[in-house]
């Protein structure tokens, strides 16, 4: 599945209650300024975006091995309540 339906289904399969993004055309990566080389590869970044659409923080040091815990810690630091 591709596009919005595929992303929504994938997020739901993981039990997520927020949207995720797949960017096969790199349109979002270009818009966010994270394309890092002339081959068009995007740098791994996590954008924390508030409900109002404003960017709260950009993590430019994403480490795959600890990223889940890092995200939880950053959300707590930003004052975003855990889901009950």
Strand content: 5-15%
- Helical element count? 3
Rough shape?
Answer: globular
Helix content: 25-40%
How many beta-strand elements?
2
The ordered string of helix (H) and strand (E) elements is HHEEH
Mean pLDDT: 84
| Sheet having the most strands | 2 strands, antiparallel
Q: How much is the radius of gyration in Å? A: 14 Å
Q: Largest beta sheet: what is the strand line-up?
A: 1-2
Which structural class fits the helix and strand makeup? alpha+beta
Termini gap: 30 Å
Tally of distinct domains: 2
Residue windows where pLDDT falls under 50 for at least 5 positions: none
Can you describe this structure in just a few lines?
By secondary structure, the protein is of the alpha+beta class.
Structure description:
This protein has three helices and two strands, in the order ααββα. The chain is an alpha+beta fold. It has two domains: 1-39, no CATH class; 44-84, no CATH class. It starts with a helix and ends in a 7-residue tail after the last helix. The model has no long low-confidence stretch (mean pLDDT 84).
Element layout with pairings:
Elements: H1 3-13, H2 27-32, E1 46-49, E2 55-59, H3 67-77
Keywords:
84 residues, 2 domains, two-stranded antiparallel ribbon, 33% helix, 11% strand
């Amino acid at each position: 599945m591709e596009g919005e339906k595929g992303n929504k289904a994938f997020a739901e399969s993981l039990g997520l209650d927020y949207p995720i993004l797949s960017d096969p055309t790199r349109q979002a990566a270009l818009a966010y300024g994270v394309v890092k080389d002339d081959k068009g590869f995007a740098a791994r970044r996590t954008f924390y975006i508030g409900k109002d659409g404003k960017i709260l923080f950009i993590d430019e040091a994403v480490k795959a091995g600890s990223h889940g815990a890092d995200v939880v810690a950053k959300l707590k630091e930003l004052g975003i309540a855990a889901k009950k």
